[in-house]
Amino acid sequence: MSRMAMAIDLAACVGCAACSVACKHENEVPIGVNRLWIRNTTIGTFPNLVTEFRPEQCLHCENPPCVPVCPTGCCFVRADGIVDIEPMKCIGCSACIAACPYDARYMHPDGYVSKCDFCKHRVAKGELPACVTTCPTLCRSFGDLDDPNSDVSIALRGARRVDLLRPGLGTGPKLYYLNAPAKFGLVGEEGQRSS
Amino acid sequence: MMTEFYALPNTEHFWHWPTLIHFFLVAMAGGAAVITTIALLTKHPKVRTYALVTMVLIVLDLITLWIESPARFRFTHVWIFLSFAPAAPIWLGAWGLSVSLVASFFVWLQKGPRALWATLLIIGSALALVYPGLALAANINRPLWTPVVLILFPLTGMLTVISIAHLLKQDWAKRWIAPLSLASVAMGIVYLAGLAMGGTEARMAFDYLMGHGGLLFALGLVLMAIVPVIRRVPVVAALVPLAGATIIRSLIVEVGQIQFFGF
Questions:
Q1: Considering CB atoms only, which of B6, B141, B262 is closest to A17?
Q2: What is this structure's pTM?
């Protein structure tokens, strides 16, 4: 058993969107929908401004609300912790889209739901997800949370601050935001936890 | 605070107008199954007619679901019946409707053990009636789909089918319209009050609902509330609460797809 996870150092992210482009290309994501997007938020009053570039995608939750609502079992959590979809069992009912608190899922034009799968085809070959390898500032870390020597575990240990998206929902996201530049942590989020 | 995006999160509506038709038909189908169940248990002389109506409504609803499904030509729906997912409201609803369909068929045929069909209908019709509210309330991330819809939807579902029964001159239906209408209005008010007096997100959801259909919601409540006044005119007494219940249900499904995380 393993728990694949990702950490993004927001202090290093420059919002170049190379990860979004790489994801689109690697996974042939259709026009009009996205597996990965960048939220660019500016707060404060000039000259005291803070800008946060926050990449968002499926968080591969420990308690994913999208999985139990699936009537066919096509949404499931793999042994390595990646929340996955089996397209051939999907009926396109959108129950998982409704349940996702992060707007991470979309309807593929071929009639099944799709989303980020941490580039499972690359992970199976021992490679890193496309967004990780393409990042010019190396702000993304990926690996097994249960392995203390994995990139993500090392990044989490070294972070000044660790934030989660919508922690109050109890979904247990496995995508961690490190060192958020905003004064009070993630912009617009409540209940962050400090490392 | 100013927010911009490179690429956009997937915030568009995922359920469209065919889903609203489904929510209307499933209210009718679930309600009709409940009526067939009661008719079977009380040995009502029209039980075969009610069973036939139930079958027709369930088949119509299933056809609507199939048509609206983006996977309709992949025939993946068979996986619902090859999987065990009792935590999924849609799985419960599909089984509730299917069990009700089979039991109604045998009731209509008047074949087989009556006690078995009654038992299956009790379970199946209850699931079919409750499932739409459950399918909404399961999404705790969507603030307009509060737990109140667990009661509001079965109530308005029964009101929908009882109104149709009244329209079709079923004598027993008349006495149930006013109580169901007033109960639905009461739950509608509880629903709004719960939002208006809730936390920050609930109040934002209340404002959003008012801005995107507040007048329609009020119209739906008024249409159901005036039933005791207009009940002497049978056609009006049937159509007015039917319209009110349908408006309220459709608005909650349509507008309720919002969650404030995206923007």
A1: B6
A2: 0.92
